[in-house]
Amino acid sequence: MATNKSCAVIGSGLFGIQAVREFTRRGNTVDWYSSDPEPGGIWQPMPWGKTRESTELVNPGWCIAPEFRGKPTVTVQEFRALLKSWSDERTDLQRRRFLTRVDSVVEYESHVCVTTPDSETPYAFVVVATGHYGAPRIPDEWAGDNCCHASSLQDLSRIQPHQSVLVIGGGQSGVEICEEIIEDRPDIRLSWCTGRTVKLITRHSPLAMLGTCVRYSTRGEAPRGFVITKSPSTVVAHCTIVPTRALHVDGGRVEFSDGSVQKFDHIIAATGYAAPVGLDFPAPNPARTKGMRLSPRSRIASLNHDGDGCGGASMRCARKQAVAAARLFADRGDPKKSPA
């Protein structure tokens, strides 16, 4: 049976790293589960991660990390190195169970049971920080070998010169893929299906800094009505922007919401990701900390909970939720303090 001081963190992305960091800072030994080989979550290099090497993060300092205060932008390589340094702070108090799939997390009256293919382990407290990026989200009706998700696009070698390419997805990933194609393969005929009218702004715009850090959406809507690019004029000059939705894709044939039909040699879906499945997490009661939810007996804390959370690079949210979860665990067993 679980002891009052046994705890586990599931997930090794930004929120999982911050949770382990806060728990071990308080002297707790943490069982750390992840299906990945290393900490980093979506920020790892592909195929384990989902972030392109060309990604740059807008950085007002308070948003990404105080270590980068004064830098207008932060490369994904710099952010990746910072996450690694945090995850390695107290390895003596970490029992890493990486490359391990968690099949279920079930709460009982006296403990939480974490089940993997090899074991069932009871804990007094569990943090679920698996995020919303478990699998590509490509509609089932899409067919054809020339359709791929952005997370599987390692390079552009499969695309021949002068072929036509359609990037579907009006968010940040979509425009970054367009920028990469324009920079590396200017001979490709490129179209970008945004599904809406977008305003292209630069990374150094005050609006970009505010929007990236404050209004990043976790419900699938686009953040405001703009997309951040390195050079708006370059994207407009070299890319045909299609402000309609792709209704149906069959091979290279694409039907759009405005009634038009076009054919493309390659289709790249930057359409987001589906949330991980298999975690039995009942969470009807919101916690006091925005973005975090608690299970009915307050033995499971879900960080950056789908629909309640904040942006993937929002350090303030990750730190605040991790601190709240660590305090909840510390308060367990203290009759003078009740769970949030």
SSE arrangement:
Layout lengths: L6 E4 L3 H12 L4 E4 L22 E3 L14 E3 H12 L6 E4 L6 E4 L4 E4 L4 E4 L1 E4 L6 E2 L10 E3 L14 E5 L3 H13 L4 E5 L5 E4 L3 H9 L11 E4 L2 H7 L1 E3 L3 E5 L2 E4 L4 E3 L2 E4 L3 E2 L10 E2 L6 E2 L5 E3 L12 H17 L9
Parallel strand pairs: 1-2, 1-9, 2-5, 9-24, 11-20, 12-13, 12-20, 13-16, 14-15
Antiparallel strand pairs: 3-4, 6-7, 7-8, 10-21, 17-18, 18-19, 22-23, 23-24
What's the total count of β strands? 24
CATH topology of the largest domain: FAD/NAD(P)-binding domain
Task: Spell the H/E element sequence.
Answer: EHEEEHEEEEEEEEHEEHEHEEEEEEEEEH
- Form type: elongated
Summed up, the helix count is 6
Q: Supply the number of structural domains.
A: 2
The CATH homologous superfamily name of the largest domain equals FAD/NAD(P)-binding domain
Q: State the share of residues found in helices, binned by percent.
A: 10-25%
Strand-pairing-aware structural class: alpha/beta
Distance between the termini: 24 Å
Pfam families: Pyr_redox_3
Keywords: FAD, Flavoprotein, Oxidoreductase
Protein name: NAD(P)-binding domain-containing protein
InterPro entries: FAD/NAD-bd_sf, FMO-like
Structural notes for this entry:
With 340 residues, the protein is an alpha/beta fold. The protein folds into 2 domains: 7-134 and 275-331, FAD/NAD(P)-binding domain; 138-269, FAD/NAD(P)-binding domain. The chain is 21% helix and 25% strand. It has 6 helices and 24 strands. It has helices at 14-25, 76-87, 172-184, 206-214, 232-238, 315-331; strands at residues 7-10, 30-33, 56-58, 73-75, 94-97, 104-107, 112-115, 120-123, 125-128, 135-136, 147-149, 164-168, 189-193, 199-202, 226-229, 240-242, 246-250, 253-256, 261-263, 266-269, 273-274, 285-286, 293-294, 300-302. The chain has a 7-stranded mixed sheet, covered by helices on one side. Strands 11-20-12-13-16 form a 5-stranded parallel sheet. A hairpin with a 4-residue loop joins strand 6 (104-107) and strand 7 (112-115). The two termini are 24 Å apart. Mean pLDDT is 84; it is low at 213-224.
